[in-house]
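All the exercises in this workshop are built on plain-text protein records. An example says more than a description, so a record of this kind follows:
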Amino acid sequence: MSFANHPETPGDYGRTPSSGGATRSNGLAIAALVLGIVAVLLFWTVFGGILLGLLALVLGIIGSRRARGGRAPHGKLSIVGAVLGALGLIGSIVIIAIGASILNSDEFKDFNDCVRHADSQSERDQCSQDYEQDSGN
């Protein structure tokens, strides 16, 4: 095999011809995909859902724009990473909203007050039973 500007040498047997340009990669797409998967798996934690989800979303958008402009491949990986990051972010926000609504409810405040004033384990158990009845569980 010989190249246009390179005479064939014995060591050239088995080499594949290069395209002449540097190999393009989209590290942002791969990073967004990995962060998006981790964000979806860890959405129940603040670090996993909010931080990693937000990073995946941002990196996915940037990677997608680069791919759309022809400067990088793997545009679909960028989009998938951004979507997974957004799902992790949304899931984490929902978990935080539910937790905040439970902690701010009147039933939980009554339960917390009851436990603070309980002197024995049996009184704490009674507080727990009363909370379950009040909350409808």
Notes: The helical segments are 27-41, 46-68, 75-103, 106-117, 121-135. Residues 59 and 70 are 17 Å apart (CA to CA).
